[in-house]
Design a protein that fits this description.
The protein has about 150 residues and is mostly helical. The chain has two helices and no strands. Helix content is about 65%, strand content about 0%.
Length: about 150
């Protein structure tokens, strides 16, 4: 009889442990989620995955279009850089030509320079005595027929 009492106590103890240790605290049986809920959740996840896939494909197509546009813009930028280099070279050539033209214009202006002649009295240096020709010591006769 004591054996039956110990057996009953041990079975009750095992039952209590199974009740408190089992999932969701519901005892020895396992908690099962309904299949309809699992199917609905799987369908939601599949729809989300399909939507994400379509967005990813759309972004890949857009990325390809943007990459082509970027390549075109890079080519245009390179072409513009080369054109800028050509124009800078032309500007340097123009500046050199402008300097040469200015120097030539200055030389031409100096060559064409017309200066005022000094007045009649300032033509002889001050140390030279200017006398009329008929009073000159080497004159043999006076102008106008005098002997």
């Amino acid at each position: 009889m004591i054996a039956y009492a110990f057996l009953t106590i041990s079975v009750a103890g095992v039952g209590a442990v199974a009740y408190y240790v089992a999932p969701a605290g519901r005892g020895a049986h396992r908690y099962v989620e309904p299949r309809s809920r699992l199917r609905a959740e799987a369908a939601r996840h599949a729809a989300a995955a399909e939507e994400a896939t379509s967005k990813l494909v759309g972004l890949a197509v857009e990325f390809d279009a943007v990459s082509v546009e970027r390549d075109d813009l890079e080519a245009a930028l390179d072409k513009a850089g080369r054109r800028i280099d050509e124009l800078e070279e032309q500007v340097r050539d123009r500046d050199q030509l402008r300097e040469a033209n200015t120097a030539l214009e200055a030389a031409l202006a100096n060559a064409r320079k017309v200066s005022q002649l000094p007045p009649h009295g300032d033509t002889q240096p001050p140390s030279v005595d200017v006398i009329p020709l008929h009073r000159a010591p080497f004159a043999s006769s006076t102008p106008g027929g005098g002997a």
